[in-house]
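Section 3.1: Structural characterization of target chains.
Under the original work plan, the team committed to producing a structural model for every single-chain target entering the pipeline before any wet-lab resources were allocated. The record below documents one such target. The sequence was received from the expression subgroup and is listed exactly as submitted; it comprises 180 residues.
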Amino acid sequence: MMQYPSIRTGRLELVPATLEMLISDRNERAMLARLLDADIPASWPPELLDKATMDEFIRMQAEQSDLHFCSWYWIRCGQGRVLIGSGGIASVPGEPDTVMIGYSVLREFRNRGYATEAVQHLASFIVTIPGVRRILATTYPELKASIRVLEKSGFVPDGITEGGAGMEEGTIRYVLEAPT
């Protein structure tokens, strides 16, 4: 399993999750706040970051079963450090040169450009990972803000998914190819 760095953007610090952070996120928010040196809003976690997802992240981190798996916590800096979202990558079964990216932002921090800022910086980093030539993302057709984030970050539509390999049926598939 690769060790990924923290990534600084204009307004954010993207902190790679450790196993201790992931377990604290699920079980003890006060510990997570200390580990991240950030305030955690009462609304944490975002709705797409449910218990089943956290359990899977913990399993993958503990077993180191996916060479490319990493989840980053998104900390807004400046007016005090506040946890506002998260995003990460994992390998795509059957596509060894591809990783899938996912992300979620707390409702009260949406529509401020944070997701676009984070995804653009993550994508720029991800395409430098040896062996990674493509980043895949999926989103629901009704999630217009998520579609805008992907398009602003250079992703292009690549059809409707049929389900499987971590993708839900009926979602739109987006792809970003690494520069050649």
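The chain has a mean pLDDT of 92.
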